[in-house]
Amino acid sequence: MIKALWGLIGAAAFALSGAVSDVHAQAPKKGGTLQFAISAETPHYDPHGSDTYATLDFSAPFYSTLLRFNLDKYPEVMGDLADSWTVAPDLMTYTFKLHSGVRYSPPVNRSVQPSDIKYAIERLYHVNSPGVGFYSDLVGAATFAKTLKGGIKGIVANDKKLTIVFRLQHPDGAFLDILAMPFAFAVPKGMPYKDISTNAKWRVATGPYVITRYVPKQSIVLKRNPNFHQWSTNSPRGHLNEIDIQIGVTPEQAVNETINGQLQWYMGAVPTDRLSQLKARYAQQVHLFPRNNDSYFLLNERKYPFTKLAVRQAANYATDRNALVKIYGGQGQASETVVPPGFGSAYKEHSVYPHDLAKAKAIGSITRLEGLLLGVLEQLVG
Question: Which end of the chain, N or C, is surrounded by fewer C-beta atoms within 10 Å?
Protein backbone atom coordinates (compact mmCIF):
# COMPACT_ATOMS: atom_id res chain seq x y z
CA MET A 1 0.00 0.00 0.00
CA ILE A 2 1.18 3.53 -0.74
CA LYS A 3 0.23 6.14 1.83
CA ALA A 4 -0.30 9.84 1.23
CA LEU A 5 1.95 11.91 3.46
CA TRP A 6 0.30 15.25 2.87
CA GLY A 7 -2.10 16.88 0.48
CA LEU A 8 -2.09 20.34 -1.05
CA ILE A 9 -5.40 21.23 -2.63
CA GLY A 10 -6.03 24.16 -4.95
CA ALA A 11 -4.11 26.74 -6.90
CA ALA A 12 -4.21 30.36 -7.97
CA ALA A 13 -4.91 31.96 -11.30
CA PHE A 14 -5.00 35.54 -12.45
CA ALA A 15 -6.57 37.63 -15.20
CA LEU A 16 -5.11 40.95 -16.29
CA SER A 17 -6.96 41.67 -19.49
CA GLY A 18 -8.99 44.49 -17.95
CA ALA A 19 -10.41 45.72 -14.69
CA VAL A 20 -13.30 43.51 -13.63
CA SER A 21 -15.22 43.36 -10.38
CA ASP A 22 -16.32 39.73 -10.70
CA VAL A 23 -14.95 37.39 -13.36
CA HIS A 24 -17.72 34.89 -12.72
CA ALA A 25 -20.44 37.44 -13.60
CA GLN A 26 -19.16 38.15 -17.10
CA ALA A 27 -21.22 36.79 -19.99
CA PRO A 28 -19.25 34.74 -22.54
CA LYS A 29 -18.38 36.48 -25.80
CA LYS A 30 -18.24 34.74 -29.16
CA GLY A 31 -15.27 34.90 -31.48
CA GLY A 32 -11.68 35.94 -31.05
CA THR A 33 -8.42 34.10 -30.42
CA LEU A 34 -7.19 32.93 -27.02
CA GLN A 35 -3.45 33.17 -26.42
CA PHE A 36 -2.66 30.14 -24.31
CA ALA A 37 0.61 28.73 -22.95
CA ILE A 38 1.92 25.59 -21.26
CA SER A 39 5.24 25.04 -19.52
CA ALA A 40 6.16 21.75 -21.18
CA GLU A 41 5.09 19.47 -24.00
CA THR A 42 2.12 17.29 -23.16
CA PRO A 43 3.21 13.60 -23.29
CA HIS A 44 1.15 13.16 -26.43
CA TYR A 45 -2.24 14.02 -27.90
CA ASP A 46 -3.56 10.50 -28.33
CA PRO A 47 -6.86 10.37 -26.42
CA HIS A 48 -6.22 6.88 -25.06
CA GLY A 49 -2.52 6.87 -24.32
CA SER A 50 -2.06 8.85 -21.12
CA ASP A 51 -3.57 9.33 -17.68
CA THR A 52 -1.93 12.70 -17.00
CA TYR A 53 -4.21 15.70 -16.56
CA ALA A 54 -2.07 17.59 -19.10
CA THR A 55 -3.25 15.16 -21.81
CA LEU A 56 -6.77 14.49 -20.58
CA ASP A 57 -7.68 18.15 -19.94
CA PHE A 58 -6.20 19.16 -23.26
CA SER A 59 -8.24 16.50 -25.12
CA ALA A 60 -11.59 17.65 -23.76
CA PRO A 61 -12.39 20.18 -26.56
CA PHE A 62 -11.78 17.54 -29.26
CA TYR A 63 -13.45 14.34 -28.17
CA SER A 64 -16.75 13.13 -26.77
CA THR A 65 -17.87 10.33 -24.47
CA LEU A 66 -21.22 8.58 -24.05
CA LEU A 67 -21.71 10.48 -20.80
CA ARG A 68 -20.09 13.52 -19.23
CA PHE A 69 -19.88 14.85 -15.71
CA ASN A 70 -22.27 17.66 -14.83
CA LEU A 71 -19.81 20.27 -13.55
CA ASP A 72 -22.60 22.20 -11.84
CA LYS A 73 -23.73 19.10 -9.92
CA TYR A 74 -20.58 17.03 -9.74
CA PRO A 75 -20.31 14.00 -9.56
CA GLU A 76 -23.67 13.66 -11.32
CA VAL A 77 -23.43 12.43 -14.92
CA MET A 78 -25.47 13.52 -17.94
CA GLY A 79 -25.69 12.49 -21.57
CA ASP A 80 -23.09 13.47 -24.16
CA LEU A 81 -23.08 11.19 -27.20
CA ALA A 82 -25.81 9.20 -25.43
CA ASP A 83 -29.36 10.46 -25.97
CA SER A 84 -30.78 8.00 -23.42
CA TRP A 85 -29.77 4.95 -21.41
CA THR A 86 -31.06 2.25 -19.10
CA VAL A 87 -29.39 0.32 -16.31
CA ALA A 88 -30.55 -3.18 -15.39
CA PRO A 89 -31.65 -3.66 -11.75
CA ASP A 90 -28.69 -5.97 -11.15
CA LEU A 91 -26.25 -3.20 -12.26
CA MET A 92 -24.64 -5.59 -14.73
CA THR A 93 -26.16 -4.47 -18.06
CA TYR A 94 -26.02 -0.89 -19.39
CA THR A 95 -27.78 0.05 -22.64
CA PHE A 96 -27.31 3.33 -24.52
CA LYS A 97 -29.01 5.01 -27.47
CA LEU A 98 -26.78 7.53 -29.31
CA HIS A 99 -27.69 10.89 -30.79
CA SER A 100 -27.82 10.80 -34.57
CA GLY A 101 -25.80 13.10 -36.81
CA VAL A 102 -22.77 13.67 -34.55
CA ARG A 103 -19.92 13.90 -37.07
CA TYR A 104 -16.17 13.56 -37.03
CA SER A 105 -14.09 16.43 -38.37
CA PRO A 106 -12.29 16.19 -41.73
CA PRO A 107 -10.85 14.07 -43.19
CA VAL A 108 -13.09 11.35 -41.68
CA ASN A 109 -16.32 13.30 -42.33
CA ARG A 110 -18.85 10.72 -41.14
CA SER A 111 -21.25 10.19 -38.25
CA VAL A 112 -20.15 8.67 -34.96
CA GLN A 113 -21.35 5.07 -34.69
CA PRO A 114 -21.78 2.79 -31.66
CA SER A 115 -19.13 0.48 -33.11
CA ASP A 116 -16.64 3.37 -32.83
CA ILE A 117 -17.11 3.35 -29.05
CA LYS A 118 -16.56 -0.41 -28.92
CA TYR A 119 -13.44 0.05 -31.07
CA ALA A 120 -12.20 2.86 -28.81
CA ILE A 121 -12.41 0.79 -25.62
CA GLU A 122 -10.74 -2.19 -27.31
CA ARG A 123 -8.06 0.16 -28.62
CA LEU A 124 -7.11 0.92 -25.00
CA TYR A 125 -5.75 -2.62 -24.77
CA HIS A 126 -3.86 -2.39 -28.06
CA VAL A 127 -2.02 0.80 -27.05
CA ASN A 128 -1.41 -0.43 -23.49
CA SER A 129 -3.41 2.46 -22.06
CA PRO A 130 -3.35 3.07 -18.29
CA GLY A 131 -7.15 3.14 -18.53
CA VAL A 132 -7.69 -0.57 -19.29
CA GLY A 133 -8.28 -1.41 -15.63
CA PHE A 134 -11.57 0.47 -15.62
CA TYR A 135 -13.01 -1.97 -18.17
CA SER A 136 -11.57 -5.24 -16.85
CA ASP A 137 -14.92 -6.43 -15.48
CA LEU A 138 -16.59 -6.43 -18.90
CA VAL A 139 -17.57 -9.91 -20.03
CA GLY A 140 -14.71 -11.22 -22.17
CA ALA A 141 -12.27 -8.43 -21.25
CA ALA A 142 -9.79 -10.76 -19.52
CA THR A 143 -9.56 -13.02 -22.57
CA PHE A 144 -9.25 -10.08 -24.95
CA ALA A 145 -6.46 -8.59 -22.81
CA LYS A 146 -4.43 -11.77 -23.35
CA THR A 147 -5.15 -12.38 -27.04
CA LEU A 148 -6.15 -8.96 -28.47
CA LYS A 149 -8.37 -10.94 -30.81
CA GLY A 150 -12.10 -11.40 -31.25
CA GLY A 151 -13.17 -8.22 -29.51
CA ILE A 152 -14.69 -7.82 -26.05
CA LYS A 153 -17.86 -9.93 -25.97
CA GLY A 154 -19.40 -7.81 -23.24
CA ILE A 155 -19.71 -4.84 -25.64
CA VAL A 156 -22.40 -5.22 -28.30
CA ALA A 157 -22.80 -2.36 -30.79
CA ASN A 158 -25.66 -2.01 -33.29
CA ASP A 159 -24.93 0.81 -35.76
CA LYS A 160 -28.30 0.45 -37.47
CA LYS A 161 -30.21 1.02 -34.22
CA LEU A 162 -27.59 3.43 -32.81
CA THR A 163 -27.34 1.35 -29.63
CA ILE A 164 -24.49 -0.07 -27.58
CA VAL A 165 -24.79 -2.52 -24.68
CA PHE A 166 -22.21 -3.21 -21.96
CA ARG A 167 -22.40 -6.43 -19.92
CA LEU A 168 -20.40 -6.78 -16.71
CA GLN A 169 -19.42 -9.85 -14.73
CA HIS A 170 -20.28 -8.20 -11.41
CA PRO A 171 -22.58 -5.34 -10.31
CA ASP A 172 -20.91 -1.94 -10.60
CA GLY A 173 -22.77 1.17 -9.56
CA ALA A 174 -19.86 3.34 -10.73
CA PHE A 175 -19.88 2.17 -14.34
CA LEU A 176 -21.72 5.28 -15.56
CA ASP A 177 -18.91 7.38 -14.07
CA ILE A 178 -16.35 5.19 -15.85
CA LEU A 179 -18.05 5.85 -19.20
CA ALA A 180 -17.79 9.60 -18.53
CA MET A 181 -14.02 9.41 -18.15
CA PRO A 182 -11.71 10.49 -21.00
CA PHE A 183 -10.54 6.92 -21.60
CA ALA A 184 -13.95 6.32 -23.18
CA PHE A 185 -13.50 9.03 -25.86
CA ALA A 186 -15.05 7.88 -29.12
CA VAL A 187 -12.67 7.55 -32.07
CA PRO A 188 -13.29 6.34 -35.63
CA LYS A 189 -12.73 2.68 -36.39
CA GLY A 190 -9.35 2.23 -38.04
CA MET A 191 -7.44 4.69 -35.88
CA PRO A 192 -3.97 3.09 -35.66
CA TYR A 193 -2.85 1.22 -32.57
CA LYS A 194 -0.09 3.74 -31.93
CA ASP A 195 0.35 7.36 -30.86
CA ILE A 196 -1.43 9.57 -33.41
CA SER A 197 -0.18 12.92 -32.05
CA THR A 198 1.69 13.90 -35.21
CA ASN A 199 -0.66 12.17 -37.67
CA ALA A 200 -3.07 14.85 -38.89
CA LYS A 201 -5.19 12.25 -40.69
CA TRP A 202 -6.23 10.72 -37.37
CA ARG A 203 -6.30 13.83 -35.16
CA VAL A 204 -10.01 14.04 -35.77
CA ALA A 205 -12.55 15.57 -33.42
CA THR A 206 -16.21 15.34 -32.50
CA GLY A 207 -16.05 18.39 -30.21
CA PRO A 208 -16.06 22.07 -31.14
CA TYR A 209 -12.29 22.32 -31.82
CA VAL A 210 -9.69 20.41 -33.79
CA ILE A 211 -5.89 20.65 -33.98
CA THR A 212 -5.04 22.29 -37.31
CA ARG A 213 -1.31 22.75 -36.75
CA TYR A 214 1.15 21.15 -34.37
CA VAL A 215 4.89 21.84 -34.19
CA PRO A 216 6.33 19.55 -31.48
CA LYS A 217 7.82 21.43 -28.50
CA GLN A 218 6.87 24.80 -30.06
CA SER A 219 3.21 25.46 -30.75
CA ILE A 220 -0.31 24.16 -31.36
CA VAL A 221 -3.21 25.85 -33.14
CA LEU A 222 -6.84 24.87 -32.49
CA LYS A 223 -9.64 26.02 -34.75
CA ARG A 224 -13.36 25.40 -35.00
CA ASN A 225 -14.38 21.93 -36.11
CA PRO A 226 -16.33 22.64 -39.34
CA ASN A 227 -18.50 19.55 -38.79
CA PHE A 228 -19.48 20.37 -35.24
CA HIS A 229 -23.02 21.18 -34.26
CA GLN A 230 -24.48 21.21 -30.77
CA TRP A 231 -26.47 17.96 -30.70
CA SER A 232 -27.79 18.60 -27.17
CA THR A 233 -27.65 21.29 -24.53
CA ASN A 234 -25.09 19.10 -22.73
CA SER A 235 -22.56 19.29 -25.56
CA PRO A 236 -20.32 22.35 -25.11
CA ARG A 237 -20.19 24.48 -28.25
CA GLY A 238 -17.27 26.72 -27.31
CA HIS A 239 -17.13 30.47 -27.92
CA LEU A 240 -13.67 31.12 -29.37
CA ASN A 241 -12.76 30.97 -33.03
CA GLU A 242 -9.17 29.93 -32.38
CA ILE A 243 -6.78 28.94 -29.58
CA ASP A 244 -3.05 29.51 -30.11
CA ILE A 245 -0.82 27.61 -27.69
CA GLN A 246 2.83 28.28 -26.94
CA ILE A 247 4.85 25.36 -25.56
CA GLY A 248 7.75 25.81 -23.14
CA VAL A 249 6.68 29.03 -21.40
CA THR A 250 7.97 29.29 -17.84
CA PRO A 251 5.68 30.50 -15.02
CA GLU A 252 7.76 33.67 -14.65
CA GLN A 253 7.57 34.34 -18.39
CA ALA A 254 3.82 33.69 -18.31
CA VAL A 255 3.26 36.35 -15.64
CA ASN A 256 5.24 38.92 -17.63
CA GLU A 257 3.48 38.09 -20.91
CA THR A 258 0.07 38.29 -19.25
CA ILE A 259 0.87 41.71 -17.80
CA ASN A 260 2.04 42.87 -21.23
CA GLY A 261 -1.13 41.61 -22.92
CA GLN A 262 0.63 38.89 -24.94
CA LEU A 263 -0.91 35.99 -23.01
CA GLN A 264 -4.40 35.38 -21.68
CA TRP A 265 -4.26 31.92 -20.11
CA TYR A 266 -1.49 29.80 -18.61
CA MET A 267 -1.85 26.18 -17.58
CA GLY A 268 0.02 26.38 -14.30
CA ALA A 269 0.25 28.12 -10.96
CA VAL A 270 1.53 31.63 -10.41
CA PRO A 271 5.11 31.69 -9.06
CA THR A 272 4.88 32.09 -5.30
CA ASP A 273 7.27 35.05 -5.23
CA ARG A 274 5.11 36.94 -7.73
CA LEU A 275 1.67 36.28 -6.30
CA SER A 276 1.90 38.81 -3.47
CA GLN A 277 3.19 41.43 -5.94
CA LEU A 278 0.29 40.77 -8.30
CA LYS A 279 -2.25 40.98 -5.48
CA ALA A 280 -0.84 44.35 -4.40
CA ARG A 281 -0.60 45.85 -7.88
CA TYR A 282 -3.69 44.32 -9.54
CA ALA A 283 -6.03 43.84 -6.60
CA GLN A 284 -9.18 43.97 -8.77
CA GLN A 285 -7.81 41.60 -11.37
CA VAL A 286 -6.30 38.78 -9.36
CA HIS A 287 -8.80 36.02 -8.62
CA LEU A 288 -8.15 32.81 -6.71
CA PHE A 289 -10.18 29.72 -7.43
CA PRO A 290 -9.99 26.10 -6.27
CA ARG A 291 -8.82 23.35 -8.58
CA ASN A 292 -9.74 19.71 -8.10
CA ASN A 293 -6.24 18.32 -7.90
CA ASP A 294 -3.86 17.21 -5.17
CA SER A 295 -0.13 17.51 -4.69
CA TYR A 296 1.27 14.89 -2.36
CA PHE A 297 4.24 12.80 -1.26
CA LEU A 298 4.11 9.02 -1.36
CA LEU A 299 5.44 6.63 1.27
CA ASN A 300 6.17 3.37 -0.51
CA GLU A 301 5.88 0.67 2.13
CA ARG A 302 7.60 -1.82 -0.15
CA LYS A 303 10.91 0.05 0.23
CA TYR A 304 13.00 0.50 3.36
CA PRO A 305 12.67 2.34 5.71
CA PHE A 306 8.96 2.77 4.96
CA THR A 307 8.46 -0.98 5.22
CA LYS A 308 8.16 -0.24 8.95
CA LEU A 309 4.80 1.07 10.17
CA ALA A 310 6.43 3.17 12.88
CA VAL A 311 8.52 5.05 10.32
CA ARG A 312 5.45 5.84 8.21
CA GLN A 313 3.52 7.01 11.25
CA ALA A 314 6.39 9.18 12.50
CA ALA A 315 6.87 10.73 9.06
CA ASN A 316 3.20 11.71 8.96
CA TYR A 317 3.27 13.20 12.48
CA ALA A 318 6.46 15.10 11.64
CA THR A 319 5.10 16.78 8.53
CA ASP A 320 3.70 20.28 8.94
CA ARG A 321 1.20 20.50 6.08
CA ASN A 322 0.40 24.13 6.74
CA ALA A 323 4.08 25.02 6.40
CA LEU A 324 4.08 23.30 3.02
CA VAL A 325 1.13 25.44 1.94
CA LYS A 326 3.18 28.53 2.86
CA ILE A 327 6.02 27.27 0.65
CA TYR A 328 3.50 27.29 -2.20
CA GLY A 329 2.71 30.91 -1.45
CA GLY A 330 -0.59 30.05 0.21
CA GLN A 331 -1.92 28.59 -3.04
CA GLY A 332 -3.66 25.63 -1.52
CA GLN A 333 -5.28 23.99 1.44
CA ALA A 334 -3.63 21.44 3.73
CA SER A 335 -5.40 18.11 3.71
CA GLU A 336 -5.17 14.46 4.70
CA THR A 337 -7.42 13.15 1.97
CA VAL A 338 -6.90 12.65 -1.76
CA VAL A 339 -10.48 13.76 -2.55
CA PRO A 340 -10.60 17.54 -3.21
CA PRO A 341 -13.41 19.74 -1.79
CA GLY A 342 -14.89 20.22 -5.28
CA PHE A 343 -16.01 16.58 -5.30
CA GLY A 344 -19.08 17.49 -3.26
CA SER A 345 -20.39 14.90 -0.84
CA ALA A 346 -17.43 12.61 -1.60
CA TYR A 347 -15.12 15.06 0.18
CA LYS A 348 -14.59 14.49 3.89
CA GLU A 349 -11.64 15.98 5.73
CA HIS A 350 -9.70 13.80 8.14
CA SER A 351 -7.34 14.50 11.01
CA VAL A 352 -5.49 11.23 11.42
CA TYR A 353 -1.98 12.61 11.76
CA PRO A 354 -1.97 16.18 13.14
CA HIS A 355 1.45 17.80 13.16
CA ASP A 356 3.20 16.58 16.32
CA LEU A 357 6.99 16.44 16.15
CA ALA A 358 7.30 15.29 19.77
CA LYS A 359 5.00 12.36 19.12
CA ALA A 360 7.00 11.45 16.02
CA LYS A 361 10.20 11.29 18.09
CA ALA A 362 8.44 9.40 20.88
CA ILE A 363 7.43 6.65 18.46
CA GLY A 364 11.11 6.07 17.81
CA SER A 365 11.91 5.66 21.49
CA ILE A 366 9.03 3.28 22.14
CA THR A 367 9.76 1.04 19.14
CA ARG A 368 13.55 1.11 19.45
CA LEU A 369 13.74 2.72 16.00
CA GLU A 370 14.84 6.08 17.32
CA GLY A 371 18.09 6.23 15.31
CA LEU A 372 16.35 5.33 12.08
CA LEU A 373 13.47 7.73 12.66
CA LEU A 374 15.74 10.62 13.55
CA GLY A 375 17.47 10.17 10.21
CA VAL A 376 14.13 10.29 8.38
CA LEU A 377 12.94 13.28 10.43
CA GLU A 378 16.11 15.22 9.76
CA GLN A 379 15.50 14.84 6.04
CA LEU A 380 11.88 15.95 6.41
CA VAL A 381 12.18 18.90 8.76
CA GLY A 382 15.90 19.72 8.74
Answer: C
